[in-house]
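Subject: design request, 248 residues
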């Protein structure tokens, strides 16, 4: 509890969080939900690689197309950038052991998930009904990015209408940026833990590097273009990943 009476997650000192092994989450099928192309690798790349090493069936659902990362680029207008970001996703996931047929792109424009909400609910409902995942990895519900929060809400809305009760594991992305992190607006009983990914951390780093549009100056003609800073990327190259589960 902080001075304002709000509860903060223990991300300031993740080294004290308890360890979990991949055997505690090993099952099939597993669904990874990414708000943008790259969130699945940043937040869950180690888990994906470990689960695939155990022959767990891992499927990935990417909600937005990521085309607003470089909105003013002439070299990469929206259609070309969409194709690039999807190719990067497939390359990254191939390194982690996920087949092309197990990756679905919803292609909603990023920044507008909440606006296109109803159509997204319908398409995601059909997909999740078909695969019936035992575990769903999804963004942390209070992530500072609006698309991440909208994605969390989207998946919960879908599950409210289905006779499924998968284990829900949330992953932080922009909470690692101290300037953006927010305390919980309401009391919430959660368990925060670390997954040991030391065996695959180098593989995860290679997969992150596949996202050249987000980590390098590949697209150099948009002065307002997005690029993950080295400081931000360092949060995703530890020999562990942090996950959050609501206590039930």
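Subject: RE: design request

Done. Sequence follows.
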């Amino acid at each position: 509890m902080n001075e304002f009476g709000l509860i903060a997650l223990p991300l300031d000192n993740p080294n004290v969080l308890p360890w979990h092994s991949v055997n505690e989450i090993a099952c099939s099928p597993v669904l990874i939900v990414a708000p943008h192309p790259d969130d699945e690798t940043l937040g869950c790349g180690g888990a994906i690689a470990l689960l695939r090493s155990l022959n767990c069936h891992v499927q990935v659902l990417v909600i937005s197309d990521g085309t607003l990362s470089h909105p003013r680029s002439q070299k990469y207008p929206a259609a070309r950038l969409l194709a690039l970001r999807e190719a990067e996703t497939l390359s990254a996931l191939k390194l982690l052991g996920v087949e092309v047929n197990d990756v679905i792109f919803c292609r909603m424009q990023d920044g507008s998930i909440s606006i296109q909400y109803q159509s997204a609910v319908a398409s995601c409902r059909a997909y999740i009904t078909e695969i019936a995942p035992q575990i769903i990895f999804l963004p942390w519900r209070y992530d500072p990015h609006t698309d991440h929060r909208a994605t969390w809400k989207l998946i919960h809305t879908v599950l409210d209408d289905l006779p499924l009760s998968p284990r829900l594991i949330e992953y932080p992305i922009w909470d690692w940026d101290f300037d953006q992190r927010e305390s919980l607006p309401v009391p919430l009983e959660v368990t925060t833990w670390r997954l040991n990914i030391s065996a695959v951390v180098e593989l995860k780093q290679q997969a992150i590097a596949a996202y050249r549009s987000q980590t390098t100056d590949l697209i150099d003609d948009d002065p307002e273009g997005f690029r993950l800073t080295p400081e931000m990327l360092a949060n995703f190259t530890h020999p562990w990943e942090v996950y959050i589960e609501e206590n039930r």
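The chain has one domain: 14-246.
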